[in-house]
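Title: Request for sanity check on IS200/IS605 family transposase prediction

Description:
We are preparing a figure and want to confirm that the structure record we downloaded matches what your pipeline produces today. Could someone re-run it with the sequence below and paste the raw structure tokens into this thread? We only need the token string, no images.
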Amino acid sequence: MSPRWNPNPDVRTGRHVVYNLHVHLVFVTKYRRGAMTGEMLTRCEEIMREVCEDFEAELKQFNGEEDHVHLLVHYPPKVQLSKLVNSLKGVSSRYLRKEYDAHVRRYLWGGHFWSGSYFAGSCGGAPLTVVRQYIENQQRPV
């Protein structure tokens, strides 16, 4: 899509699709232990940015604290969200445990870094009430 047709850079195109999909993800450390340092958060962002690129997704925003991280990811419709999440958590866990082994072992044990659960919330676009109203107001052919 040329810029004159698409003033919103978040609206992307594929061969047979036009999309704008964003997800807010939250990952919590195992046992909600405060294992993350500022340096680890910086490294975690780098790792997760690379994983997103492997999925042809974009890590738009990243931040976190000692016991959790927040991500805003723009992803294509061909990406299965659960696979992206598993890869983000798995790859970051491996690298963070390997690179910060002594520190991580003080807080976490058993080979785990992240909790098994996560939060995923769709975001962006119009509020649901506006979308519902738009669909409701479509004119049916006579």
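Thanks, this matches our download. The mean pLDDT is 92.
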